[in-house]
Amino acid sequence: MADSTTSTGSPGSRLLGLTTLVGLAGLLLFAFVFTEPDVRLHPTTGEEFGQFDAVRLLYLHVPMAVLTYVAFLTCAVASAGYLLKRGAWWDVTAHASAEVGTVCCGLVLVTGSIWGRPVWNTWWEWGDVRLMTTLVLFLLFTGYLALRRTPAEPQRQARRAAIVALVAVVDIPLVNRSVEWWENRTLHQQSTLAELKIEDLTLFTLMLGFVVFGLVFAWLMLHRFRVGWLEHAQAGHEVALAIAERHAEMETLDVDAAIGQTGGGK
């Protein structure tokens, strides 16, 4: 049995994980089986057009994009909290949410490319402002994680990372509003959800996607935070051990010096 002091699991987290797995299975069934493909008829020619089965990626891509925003905003809030409070809890939360957000952002780019191939006839469009601002966001937080790996005094490293996170998060409004601000420089359409262009089972499945990926975020954050906290505790233990060993060495040297002085006085 795993030691409770070193395990990131708990009855609550296991229940959350099981619920998340069931939710993911249900989402995949609705997304790829129960919902209909996007097929429309041209009003004059009667020809079929639309995104067809490619539209099913909507139920994964969009919730992952929202999860990316939530993770990076959580990182920014926690980073601000660390700069104000200097508490380890804030730093560990920032690091955990940045890792979760970076993974999700990478998946957003991948699923977006897969979706774009049949719809736009291209895997990637360098002139698309939403693609490029999302790529910049991914690279910024990849740099944040690289900074966390550089050798440095822990407090200084946490402070530098917090500043980088607060700068990087400024890109989120650019990603989110790029379609509206530069509508002539993107292949992306404006939000169909905001304009209420989806309904019935399509709307239900998208909402289910938001809920399920919210559970995914909670489960990932819970375990990554616990790993980070264990790493923090281990580092603190190693520092305390090193200090204790140094004190023991100093005491040994003092005893040896005292013995030497006593021996020299005889």
Beta-strand percentage range: under 5%
- Class computed from helices, strands and strand pairing: mainly alpha
Number of strands: 2
The total domain count is 1
The number of helices is 7
In round numbers, the mean pLDDT is: 86
Listing every helix as H and every strand as E from the N terminus to the C terminus, the arrangement reads HEEHHHHHH
Helix content percent band: over 70%
Verbal overview:
There is one protein chain. The chain is mostly helical. The chain has one domain (11-225). 74% of the residues lie in helices and 3% in strands. It has seven helices and two strands. The relative contact order is 0.13.
In summary, what is this structure?
The protein has 266 residues and is mainly alpha-helical.
Layout of secondary structure:
Elements: H1 11-34, E1 38-41, E2 48-52, H2 58-85, H3 88-120, H4 129-149, H5 154-168, H6 171-181, H7 200-265
Antiparallel strand pairs: 1-2
Helix pairs in contact: 1-7, 2-3, 2-5, 2-7, 3-4, 3-7, 4-5, 4-6
Structural features:
7 helices; mainly alpha; 266 residues; two-stranded antiparallel ribbon; 2 strands
